[in-house]
Amino acid sequence: MAGIEVTALHKRYPDGTVAVDHVDLSIRDGELFVMLGPSGCGKTTTLRAVAGLERQTTGDIRIGDTLVNDLPPAERDIAMVFQFYALYPHLRTRDNLAFPLRAEGLPKAEVRARVDEAARLMRLGPLLDRRPRRLSGGEQQRVALARALVRRPRAFLMDEPLTNLDAELRADMRTEIKHLQGELGTTMVYVTHDQVEAMSLGHRIAILNKGRVEQIGTPLEVYDRPASLFCAAFIGSPPMNLIEVEVADGKLRGQGGLVLTPPPGLPRDRRLVAGVRPEALEVTEPRAERSVPARVVSAEWLGDEIIYVVDHGGRRDVRVRMPPTVRFAADAPVGLRHTGGTPAVYDVNTEELVA
Amino acid sequence: MAVSVDEAVSTRPARDRGSPARRFGGRGRSALEVTLLTVLAAVMLFPVLWMIETSIKENRDVYAIPAKFFDFKVTMDHYKDVFVASGSGRSTLSAAFLNSVVVAGASTALATVLGVPAAWAYSRFAMKAKKDQLFFILSTRFMPPVVVVIPIFLMYRQVGLIDSKLGLILIYAAFNVPFTIWMMKGFVDEVPAEYEDAAMLDGYTRLQAFWRYTLPLLLPGIAATAVFALIFSWNEFVFAIFLTSSDSVRTAPPAIAGLIGGTTVDWGLVAAASVVFALPVLVFAYLVRKHLVAGVTLGAVRR
């Protein structure tokens, strides 16, 4: 087991595309580290560079204490699981599992023991004598995971392994992967574009955009204080409300009269935007205490909650998450009230968190 | 008059109820289809049938008027003449067939050996101006052979490739490589790159991964592509007649064509030679028909 250090990674393809601009990552030993970002943000390229499937243009990659820049994938002692499972179609599950071990030249008894162990961990017993064609998507992915396990690698690399599964199975596999990683304690780097996956799995999350790291933090840090406007808009469903504010009389005042508590150390003379989560707002009866007048534009009834889109005279409508018991009709006059603590505040020009 | 108008009005809705498919549907339609297909097949296959008939007729029956369809004496003399010279030893035609086998086989093998790895590279790697390169490769096939045959002839005379099997093999391979690259690239695109990635993580080099995992999955595609290349080389006429002259080098198409044009034409021999010439390709296509279908239904591989 080992940590992974990625320093100043830059990858430019011969056709001129810059897939990774500048990425620094410090992944700890035993950590489940998630790289999250929209497609084309460079997360997969970064992972493939760590695996050795792509050669970075510049920058260093260390796995444990070893500088692996020039090592072929096989010598990096890592295992990778792909979105497409890449099981060898002509081999039975048992042989698919044994394959990397035989390639290493392990003795037969050892191969058998390790295959059995991995099969037990992933509960593959009944599937051992089937070929991939006769396995369902979920089963194939479990075999792919088991094939990564048998190697006992220093790190697992996961490239959107659950994307091809249907929603229910995805949730099950998510739990399974998290449990497995906890049990084995092996470093895992997990790439996904699904924020729910990232939030539920990761010890820490790196949010990537346009080949750069926007933020690294625990799921809570990333959720509570997104480091940039991109992160603020990317994490959360619905995402943060971005409300343009001005500092006046020791308060943050938004257009439409919404008043927020300012965080300490706000810079002066800059255009500011406050990020307010939908659950930090509240739709109230009109003229309720501390509320500003507003109007319901639309309501999404999600069963366990209602998302109200509310016009309070600001530049943009805001989204408010409410329990399903609080019901207002569309177009109804209501009040809008801020109930959360101090919001995250961003500079409009640099798009970065200022306080 | 009034009655007929009433009839027309009353029957109209009933007729409209049946959809076009139903009106021509059922047995009527299938009978029509069978008839049309039979006529089409007869028209398409008649020359082939006539060629086979002519090849087993005696010469006086070949020229008989009215033509004899069934009541002629069957002879195998023409087939004997294809392979055995009038005196003794091998005929020039049989030498030409052997040349065709060598030239078509070698050029197809060469095109496959060069084209498949190229297609793999174009499919797997990012490279500069990839689309332009591929377009350039395809553009070499834009011109019909007859346009380039004169310059090729002059160049071949300079380098001493004129009237040699090697020369034909090279020019056919050159024509087949672009085709092989384009067709095989489609097949390689269909094979997920993850197989190779996984194999590389399992300890193989990129080339080993290609050789052990991707290549076996490409075999149907390679078979289909090779058959097309083989048929092109086998049938090619223009280059063959311009670039070769001696009987020891000449391939079958110009050799068969050479039979026509003397004072008398031995049609039986021409027909027999043509049958012998057509058979290998037919047999070959039949043997790999499964792969050919797989090749034509590109994109049937489920990811």
From TrEMBL, chain A:
Query: Which residue range or ranges hold the ABC transporter domain?
Result: 4-235
Keywords (alphabetical) are: ATP-binding, Cell membrane, Membrane, Nucleotide-binding, Sugar transport, Translocase, Transport
A GO molecular function annotation here is: ATP hydrolysis activity
PROSITE patterns, sorted: ABC_TRANSPORTER_1, ABC_TRANSPORTER_2
Any one of the GO BP annotations = carbohydrate transport
User: Record's superkingdom?
Assistant: Bacteria
- Gene Ontology cellular component list: ATP-binding cassette (ABC) transporter complex, substrate-binding subunit-containing
- Gene3D superfamilies annotated for this entry? 2.40.50.100, Nucleic acid-binding proteins, P-loop containing nucleotide triphosphate hydrolases
Alphabetical list of InterPro entries matching this protein: AAA+_ATPase, ABC_transporter-like_ATP-bd, ABC_transporter-like_CS, ABC_transpr_MalK-like, ABC_transpr_MalK/UgpC-like, Mo/tungstate-bd_C_term_dom, NA-bd_OB-fold, P-loop_NTPase
The protein in question is named sn-glycerol 3-phosphate transport system ATP-binding protein/multiple sugar transport system ATP-binding protein
* Lineage per the UniProt record: Bacteria, Bacillati, Actinomycetota, Actinomycetes, Streptosporangiales
UniProtKB/TrEMBL annotation, chain B:
Q: Where in the cell is it found?
A: Cell membrane
Q: What are the transmembrane regions? A: 31-52, 96-122, 134-156, 168-188, 209-234, 267-288
**InterPro entries cross-referenced by the UniProt entry:** BP-dep_ABC_trans_perm (IPR050901), MetI-like (IPR000515), MetI-like_sf (IPR035906)
Chain ranges of the ABC transmembrane type-1 domain: 97-288
Q: Which PROSITE patterns match?
A: ABC_TM1
What's a single GO CC term here?
A: plasma membrane
Matching entries from Gene3D superfamilies are given as: MetI-like
A single BP term in Gene Ontology: transmembrane transport
Where are the residues of the annotated region Disordered?
1-24
Instruction: Give the record's membrane topology.
Output: Multi-pass membrane protein
Task: Report whether Chloroplast shows up as a keyword of the record.
Answer: no
Q: Which domain of life is it from?
A: Bacteria
* Family stated for the protein in its record: Belongs to the binding-protein-dependent transport system permease family.
Protein name, as recorded: Carbohydrate ABC transporter membrane protein 2 (CUT1 family)
